[in-house]
Amino acid sequence: xxxxxxxxxxxxxxxxxxxxVAAGLLMLMTLRTSLxxxxxxxxxxxxxxxxxxxxxxxxxxxxxxxxxxxxQVEDRDGLVRAVSEDLEAISGTGNxxxxxxxxxxxxxxxxxxxxxxxxxxxxxxxxxxxxTALAPGxxxxxxxxxxxxxxxxxxxxxxxxxxxxxxxFRGEEAVVHAGAPLSVERAALDSVRTSMVVGVPLLLxxxxxxxxxxxxxxxxPVEGIRREMAAITRSQDLSRRVPEPASRDExxxxxxxxxxxxxALESSVERQRRFVADASHELRSPIASLRTQLEVxxxxxxxxxxxxxxxxxxxLQGLAADLLLLARLDAGERxxxxxxxxxxxxxxxxxxxxxxxxxxxxxxxGGEGLNVTGSRGQLAxxxxxxxxxxxxxxxxxxxxxxxxxxxxxxxxxxxxxAGVPAADRERIFERFVRLDDARSRDEGGAGLGLAIARDVAxxxxxxxxxxxxxxxxxxxxxxxxxxxPVRDARA
Length: 491
Known about the structure:
47% helix; single chain; Heat Shock Protein 90
């Protein structure tokens, strides 16, 4: 089932169905128990009423039993002594008799009749009864109810019979069987079952329909997002955006996140296009110059400018290296994890600047213990780019310093040139950006050095910023987190 709406509707319907069936069964059990108790109580009331009359002042012949409930009274010998009016047949009491009988007269000296026998036996009859014989006028407990049937005035029905023992006021033992109809209980249970059989499917259909409609409305914006994303994919127009619903639920957040992703993707693609265009422009000039020199040299060997061709080749080589590094950084290449001695790296880079146009002065060289984690080659590239930039724009000197500021190692490269205007201090870190003043009239710079330096610094967990130098020019500040000291395992 591929539709979310269908799965949601089916799941909700299944849950409600299980809940309804469980609740219905529990309700039926509770209702059945309650009705059983009511029927039993009704039969007990009838039986106790008849027993109470026998226990007080009414004999078997004087009992007036109406036809509302089937009643059967038998004596200790199992003879039916009284039945309710219009009772034609009965089952479930253990005695099917429905016609009152009179007991046969007992002859003199019969063990069941007189006091002489009781005296002769020394009370053995009472012992045979286990001490549970009821005194005259006393009513016993109710026996376990049993289900049976009776025919009253030609109508057969099922009844619940209860039994009550009683000793009449004359001392005769009797058993009263009284029944209460089960038809009302069964009719109520049948009515509930019918209601469940008819109502539960209708309710489940309503639940499924409502769930379908609610889910459809809730997922409507999602379908709109999907259609718009499909249209964007077909048209490749990243300037388009998906519709954002006014709600602040998960769907609304999904739409806003999707638009943010599209905006970031559009910006990335635009930067890529601009990068390709700028790279093509930067490569065109040295390639054209080199081609011109080679063509002139081919036609007139004496006019070949070998130093110029070498310079153009070096410029092409540097530009290609910069573009390759940027491509690797854009692809998400992580710097190689290594322990770099920043003081030694700075000293090495400065020592290589003996042939630069302006002298490089290293101050605060005491940087022992300033180790950082990362790629030595990429960090050397950052320092080299900063020194190249300072050489191009310095008036007479370049200063490099190294210090520690808490958990951060700070490298500063300053020059005494014209500096960077405050409005352009972020723009100079963009790719292929060169300012219009003296800083744009550099010697072969393509505007990639500072962009590479900031990107590498960021990937090493640091920062690269620019501010005014005390010498009056630009001060580039490279901050890198100091590596945690490695503990000796033998300590």
